[in-house]
């Protein structure tokens, strides 16, 4: 791993899940965050000749926590964001002063967001999922105003847990789609949107900072979940046992929080984790000789593989909270941390990993 460019925007705070996003089919990326005065900000940068140039900055009324391009077309490249006031907005970055879609999505802060059905990734309708401190996970269709198409919330009398992370997966045809959500108490819940049911749940004993499927647009294959205590879990989703659930392998990366995990777009078995000690770790998942076996009661049970560390680097003394791979150029990524710096990196020799 080597840095191509690094710069600091001292007056802007970049904190949240996915506040940095590459704009598809371009050499530009967006940074989301907030000013010290409590307003939100969107900054658009362009990478040119090894340097990053700020080409647009737009201030918003509320701090922005998260964003995604997952539900937009390649032609429009509209960005969906969640803010501290519970709002879901969709922006045309060519004219970002006024949103093209806006809804009061949650009663409290929108912690996390993901999209599918756009960018040619995933079959079916374009949809956005949001998770909030109010304990709910909601799925939105941008073509439908005001009300969500699905609402996953605790039953009456059940404690509402802070939802920290959401991810789409299993969108390999027009009917199937799943949402995975992680919560502050270590719960991971997998919702089947086709049957509108809870398909699977587990608890990893520490707050779940990030969940991501290795690919959104295939029959569920793997899921990585990261936690507060420096451990991440890789679940093999191809075989679900009725009582044991999914096979998994866990790895202790370091002692600090693993803020995020991002799979390489060009290779679903390679992923990067970002650490609370300012470090990045690059991993590769190795499949077992057989991914399932028959147990004593003649039921198929999954077999977990192993995880190998390919490379690691320390970039800062502060946590690296966000990272996004370029979908167009293998190895190119952008990350930001609590030191209010944004860095563009290039990871080489990935084809030989």
From TrEMBL:
PANTHER family on file: MRNA EXPORT FACTOR AND BUB3 (PTHR10971)
Domain of life where this protein originates: Eukaryota
Annotated Gene Ontology cellular component terms: dynein axonemal particle
GO annotation, biological process: apoptotic process
Keyword Repeat: yes
Alphabetic keyword roster: Apoptosis, Cytoplasm, Repeat, WD repeat
Principal subcellular localization: other
Annotated source species: Gasterosteus aculeatus aculeatus (three-spined stickleback)
Lineage, top ranks: Eukaryota, Metazoa, Chordata, Craniata, Vertebrata
Cited function: Key assembly factor specifically required for the stability of axonemal dynein heavy chains in cytoplasm.
Protein name as it appears in the record: Dynein axonemal assembly factor 10
Swiss-Prot/TrEMBL WD repeat ranges: 128-141
Compartmental location: Dynein axonemal particle
């Amino acid at each position: 791993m080597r840095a191509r460019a690094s710069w600091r925007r001292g007056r802007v705070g970049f904190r949240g899940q996915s506040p940095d996003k590459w704009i598809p089919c371009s050499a530009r990326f967006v940074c989301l965050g907030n000013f010290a005065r409590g307003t939100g900000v969107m900054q658009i940068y362009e990478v040119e000749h090894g340097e990053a140039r700020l080409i647009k900055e737009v201030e918003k009324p509320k701090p922005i926590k998260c964003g995604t391009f997952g539900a937009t077309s390649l032609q429009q490249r509209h960005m969906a964001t969640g803010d501290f006031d519970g709002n879901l907005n969709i922006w045309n970055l060519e004219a970002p002063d006024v949103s093209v879609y806006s809804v009061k999505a949650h009663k409290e802060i929108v912690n996390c967001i993901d999209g599918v059905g756009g960018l040619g990734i995933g079959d079916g309708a374009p949809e956005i999922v949001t998770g909030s401190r109010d304990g709910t996970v909601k799925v939105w269709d941008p073509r439908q105003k005001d009300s969500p198409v699905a609402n996953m919330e605790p039953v009456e009398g059940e404690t509402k847990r802070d939802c920290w992370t959401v991810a789409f997966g299993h969108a390999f045809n027009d009917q199937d789609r799943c949402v995975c959500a992680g919560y502050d108490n270590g719960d991971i819940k997998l919702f089947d949107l086709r049957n509108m049911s809870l398909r699977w749940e587990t608890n990893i004993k520490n707050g779940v900072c990030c969940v991501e499927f290795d690919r959104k647009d295939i029959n569920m294959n793997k899921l990585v979940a990261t936690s507060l205590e420096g451990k991440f879990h890789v679940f093999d989703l191809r075989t679900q046992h009725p009582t044991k659930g999914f096979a998994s392998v866990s790895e202790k990366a370091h002692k600090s929080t693993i803020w995020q995990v991002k799979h390489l777009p060009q290779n679903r078995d390679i992923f990067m984790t970002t650490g609370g000690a300012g470090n990045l770790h690059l991993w590769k998942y190795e499949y077992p000789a057989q991914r399932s076996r028959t147990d004593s009661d003649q039921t198929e049970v999954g077999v977990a593989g192993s995880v190998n560390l390919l490379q690691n680097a320390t970039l800062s003394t502060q946590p690296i909270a966000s990272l996004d791979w370029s979908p167009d150029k293998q190895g190119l990524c952008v990350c930001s941390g609590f030191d209010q710096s944004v860095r563009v990196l290039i990871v080489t020799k990935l084809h030989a990993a």
